[in-house]
Design brief:
The protein is mainly alpha-helical. It has a domain of about 70 residues. It is about 75% helix and about 0% strand. It contains four helices and no strands. α2 runs parallel beside α4 and α3 runs antiparallel to α4. The model has no long low-confidence stretch (mean pLDDT about 85).
């Protein structure tokens, strides 16, 4: 039974013999690295990089449901990619624009 499942995976149109399998695998690496970057201070987060990660995630999560065969691994990694990019952008924006106002309010008191 395990052999037939392994053979079915191997011969699947989105299986390990195709780019449809490996592209999301490498994107998982980018998503994990972006998640690990949440330990960095916000000043070290790059706007262009996070905009690219977010845009890639949003755009390809839509189009990964249109291609045939449906590649749910690609869809999942793009949702995670968009989520981590949005999180990093929100950290950076909060740090760059809202911390100054909070510091000013505290200084007045």
């Amino acid at each position: 039974m395990a052999t037939s499942k392994l053979q079915a995976l191997w011969n699947h149109p989105a299986g390990p013999k195709t780019i449809h399998f490996w592209a999301p695998t490498f994107k998982w690496g980018i998503s994990i690295a972006n998640l690990a970057d949440s330990l960095k201070p916000p000043e070290k987060v790059s706007y262009p990089q996070q905009i690219a990660v977010t845009a890639t995630g949003v755009i390809w999560s839509r189009y990964s449901t249109v291609i045939t065969p449906k590649n749910w691994n690609l869809f999942s990694v793009n949702i995670v990619m968009a989520g981590t990019g949005i999180y990093q952008l929100s950290r950076k924006i909060r740090h760059d624009y809202f911390n100054e106002e909070e510091k000013a309010v505290v200084a007045k008191e």
